[in-house]
Each structure stands twice: as structure tokens, then as C-alpha cells.
Specification:
Distance between the termini: 12 Å
CATH class of the largest domain: Mainly Beta
CATH superfamily of the largest domain: Regulatory protein AraC
Low-confidence stretches: none
Mean pLDDT: 92
Radius of gyration: 19 Å
CATH topology of the largest domain: Jelly Rolls
Order of helices and strands: EEEEEEEEHEEHHEHHHHHHH
Shape: globular
CATH architecture of the largest domain: Sandwich
Largest sheet: 9 strands, antiparallel
Number of domains: 2
Helix content: 40-55%
Number of helices: 10
Number of strands: 11
Length: 288
């Protein structure tokens, strides 16, 4: 399959610690501001991606790597006509915490030109097309070793007041517990015992987005998790607070470039493979 023809596809690989893999062509899609509960590494195979992160726009073309640490808010759009094609992997924070002294708390280079890093990423992606599980696990560890030792640094100490940090953590826990319904700012302010305007300001400063945007992101993350286990789209929409299947589909595709139905179908195909065979991604990965 030619790179030009590939639509974005994605899988959550529960057998590899829940890493998420997405690959495909984003021709004219703009990915809005969002973050991941994990390290995102993207290997560009064609075109140019413009990644907006920490107030800087980074442009990456074929052969370059883009990296975003856990919980770092970013956005992306095509850097040239025709967009970009990439393979991207998101490694969950709990996996990072088992392999890094500072866990998932680090800063990193955003645009990386490193032939060794490119090689180990390519090896990992290729292993997902049918290599034994042991080889896939070793390839993942190789990626972590190369990246964490070469391209990360410790963050500066946070300057936020303890009361603000506690308020934000309290609100995040509450929002995460109520993904199925709308939550008001008054509820959050009363729960955190902080002024509403101050809450929005400190939440946005600490998290990188306001409470409503973070709540929507968590609802979409939960949707991805449920779809990856084969649950039907309508049930997922109801469980994560969307008015209906169409509402979920619009929101999900806006942030991922993939429809919920396509994601669920790919996971069902992945899960239906014989248990005696190594798990393999069931769609082509051109450009590697």
C-alpha cells in the first residue's frame, strides 16, 4: 500500500503495557491542543508535520522524530500541502515509571535527528507485524533506553503554590471520576475550596488547558480504552457522557483523526488472531 493512500489507523496493545500505536496520512487534519498520559514518539516517513509545543513550532520531515513528554499540551497541523505521514507510539506513564529514575517526570528534546533512535523505533514498529512477543518487548525496552538516556532532562522545580497544586489535583480526580456527565465550575470550586476564577487560572497554568478541555480529553481517553476492548460505539458514547454515537464520532475524530468505528473494527480484528501466533498489527505499515 502506498503511503499516499493510507488513512490513519490505531491500536492499543494491552499485551505491551497498553502502548498506543497510530500510523497514517494526515493530509489536511489539524490536531487540536491535547496531551497524553505517556511519552509520545513520532517517526515521520513523508511530508512535514508542524508541532506546536511550549510556545514553539517545530517542523519535522521524513526521517525526523518528534517527542512529547507525558501531560505536555501540544497541537499539530500539516507543514506542507499534502500533510504528513507518520508512525507514532505513546508509551504509558506507568511503563515509563518502571524504567526511569524520575518516572514520567522529565523534559525532552522535541525535534530529534538521531539515526540510532530512528533505527530502534523502526525495529519496534516492524516487530509489531508478527515478531514474537519477546522480540516486541525487547524492542520496546531498546526504544526506552535510547530515548531516556540521550534525550531527556529533569524539569525545573514547580513554582506554583501548594494550595493551587492541591486544588488542581482534587479537581482532576473529581473530573476523572465523573466522565459520564457534565461537571460545573461551581462544583469544582466548592470541592477545591478556591475561587472559581483563580481555579481556572491555576488549572490552566499547571495542566496546560482549562478544566472543561481536560475533562473532554479524559472522556476521549476512556473512549479509546473501551473501544480497544471491543465495546460498541453507542455504549461507549453513553458511558463517557456523549449525547449519542454521532457526538462521540465528531469529537473522537477531531482529536485522533480516526473514527471510533474504524478503531473498534481494527481492535476486533487484532483480538481475533489465533492465540498460538504472535500478535500482529492487521494493517500495513508502509514507509518503514
Amino acid at each position: 500500500m502506498a503511503i499516499e493512500e493510507t488513512i490513519p489507523r490505531g491500536l492499543k496493545l494491552h499485551n505491551l503495557g497498553g502502548i498506543e500505536v497510530v500510523a497514517g496520512r494526515y493530509r489536511d487534519h489539524v490536531l487540536p491542543r491535547h496531551s497524553h498520559d505517556g511519552l509520545m514518539l513520532s517517526l515521520l516517513s513523508d511530508g512535514v508535520q508542524a508541532l506546536h509545543c511550549r510556545g514553539v513550532t517545530h517542523f519535522a520531515d521524513a526521517g525526523k522524530i518528534l517527542a512529547v513528554p507525558p501531560h505536555e499540551v501540544h497541537a499539530a497541523e500539516p507543514g506542507v500541502e499534502g500533510g504528513w505521514y507518520y508512525h507514532t507510539i505513546t508509551i504509558p506513564s506507568d511503563v515509563l515509571e518502571r524504567h526511569h529514575p524520575q518516572g514520567a517526570r522529565f523534559l525532552c528534546e522535541t525535534a530529534i535527528c538521531d539515526d540510532d533512535m530512528k533505527r530502534v523505533l523502526q525495529t519496534l514498529f516492524r516487530s509489531l507485524n508478527g515478531a514474537p512477543v519477546l522480540a516486541q518487548e525487547e524492542a520496546l525496552l531498546d526504544v526506552l533506553e535510547h530515548f531516556l538516556t540521550r534525550h531527556t532532562r529533569l524539569p525545573q522545580r514547580a513554582s506554583h503554590k501548594p494550595i493551587e497544586l492541591r486544588a488542581v489535583e482534587t479537581c482532576k480526580a473529581y473530573l476523572a471520576a465523573y466522565l459520564h456527565r457534565n461537571v460545573t465550575l461551581t462544583e469544582l470550586a466548592q470541592l477545591a475550596r478556591i475561587d472559581r476564577f483563580l481555579l481556572v487560572r491555576c488549572f490552566t497554568a499547571i495542566v496546560g488547558m482549562p478544566p472543561h478541555a481536560w475533562h473532554m480529553q479524559q472522556r476521549l481517553h476512556r473512549s479509546f480504552e473501551m473501544l480497544s476492548k471491543g465495546q460498541c460505539v453507542a455504549d461507549v458514547a453513553a458511558a463517557t457522557g456523549f449525547a449519542d454515537q454521532a457526538h462521540l464520532t465528531r469529537a473522537f475524530k477531531r482529536v485522533t483523526g480516526i473514527t471510533p468505528g474504524r478503531l473498534r473494527k481494527d481492535h476486533l480484528a487484532f483480538q481475533s488472531q489465533p492465540a498460538t501466533s504472535p500478535p500482529r498489527i492487521t494493517w500495513p505499515l508502509p514507509g518503514l
